[in-house]
Specification:
This protein is mainly β and 110 residues long. The chain is built from no helices and nine strands. Strand 2 (17-26) and strand 3 form a beta hairpin.
Length: 110
């Protein structure tokens, strides 16, 4: 077992993201063999460019509101909503409204 306190973790910047900062809570370097768990904080007008990954992802919105869009679909996430993203799925992220958004991000290594 491993406890990671609220103010602990490893800061990171995600590729193709903007007006965002993150804190890795658990990853291969700290405890897990196939899992990364992070908290991503997006400022208003923040988000991420359209991209895909070979890794499975889960976004759980802790606060604020986000739009996560694929090439042919769009998902509005509000506090408490969860979105599963399959390997290879393209997505772009955009903060909705004037408040910051905070997301729990779970990534599973293939």
């Amino acid at each position: 077992m491993k406890t990671v306190k609220a103010n602990k973790g490893t800061p990171y910047e995600a590729k193709r993201h903007f007006h965002m900062w993150g804190l890795k809570k658990v990853d291969r370097e700290t405890a897990a063999s196939r899992l990364t768990v992070s908290i991503s904080h997006f400022l208003p007008n923040g988000g991420a460019e359209m991209s895909s990954s070979a890794k499975e992802r889960v976004y759980y919105l802790l606060s604020g509101a986000l739009t996560v869009a694929g090439p042919e679909e769009e998902h509005l996430l509000e506090e408490g909503d969860l979105l599963y993203i399959a390997p290879g799925e393209e997505r772009a992220i955009k903060v909705r409204g004037v408040n910051p958004a905070t997301v729990l991000v779970i990534i599973v290594e293939p």
